[in-house]
Amino acid sequence: MIRLYRARFSTNVERVALALAHKGLEAESVWIDYGDRSLVERVSGQGLVPVIEYDGEVVADSMEIVRFLEERRPSPPLFPRDPARRAEVLVFVDWFNRVWKRPPNEIEAELSKSQPDRARVAEMAELMRAYLDLFEDLLTGREYLMGAEFTTADVAAFPFVKYAALHDPEDDELFHRILRDYQRDRHRPRVEAWIRRVDQRPRA
Ligand SMILES: N[C@@H](CCC(=O)N[C@@H](CS)C(=O)NCC(=O)O)C(=O)O
């Protein structure tokens, strides 16, 4: 039995929803509101989603969960079997989490101040556009970020990069508005096609 603790519009939950569906795993959803983390805290000892319970085992953190699901249900895979290609995926995910995410996080921190440093915001916005250009190049002649197959790299990046083309009008989170507003400076046809392609995939 799998239970997924989730919150509406959560990017990190969407990673897990994509991974579960890719592996054909069904999960019972437990929807939480950020105003009340008590249930998630009780189950996992911390207050962030996603969290899964899998046959009684509890795992928190989106990419930890994806790795755990790969162990429990190796097929269909989300990591390449070839060690070199698997290492490339791990390097990409690490870059994405530590480097790619920093500019939108810093913009969010600035915009939450009463007097944002506009020069700092512009500098970070420039980086976001440069990173999106890297995605455009990465997708040259490829369906997915790491090649022909949908992998953990797509799972990690899609819920954040999708805002370059998609935004639910009911989703009013500042971080998500930043992802939308600073990733729409010009058309990037390969990124836009990849967003449509991944968006058509099932989610738990
Ligand atoms: N490193 C964690 C981050 C989890 C996280 O930040 N979750 C957000 C939702 S996307 C959350 O629970 N936010 C509530 C809050 O920060 O108050 C992961 O990858 O799962």
What is the CA-atom radius of gyration, in angstroms? 17 Å
CATH architecture of the largest domain: Up-down Bundle
CATH C-level label of the largest domain: Mainly Alpha
User: Which series of helices and strands comes N to C?
Assistant: EHEHEEHHHHHHH
Euclidean distance between termini CA atoms = 14 Å
Instruction: Give me the secondary-structure category.
Output: alpha+beta
Strand arrangement within the widest β-sheet reads: 2-1-3-4
How does the major sheet shape up? 4 strands, mixed
Write down the CATH topology of the largest domain: Glutathione S-transferase Yfyf (Class Pi), Chain A, domain 2
Oligomeric grouping of the chains: single chain
Describe what you observe in this structure.
The chain has helices at 11-22, 38-44, 62-72, 83-100, 102-111, 118-138, 152-161, 174-181, 189-199; strands spanning 2-6, 28-31, 51-54, 57-60. With 204 residues, it is an alpha+beta fold. The protein has two domains: 2-72, Glutaredoxin; 83-199, Up-down Bundle (Glutathione S-transferase Yfyf (Class Pi), Chain A, domain 2). Strands 2-1-3-4 form a four-stranded mixed beta sheet, with helices on both faces. β3 and β4 form a beta hairpin. α1 (11-22) packs antiparallel against α7, α4 runs parallel beside α7 and α5 (102-111) crosses α8 (174-181). The radius of gyration is 17 Å and the shape is globular. It starts with a strand and ends in a 5-residue tail after the last helix.
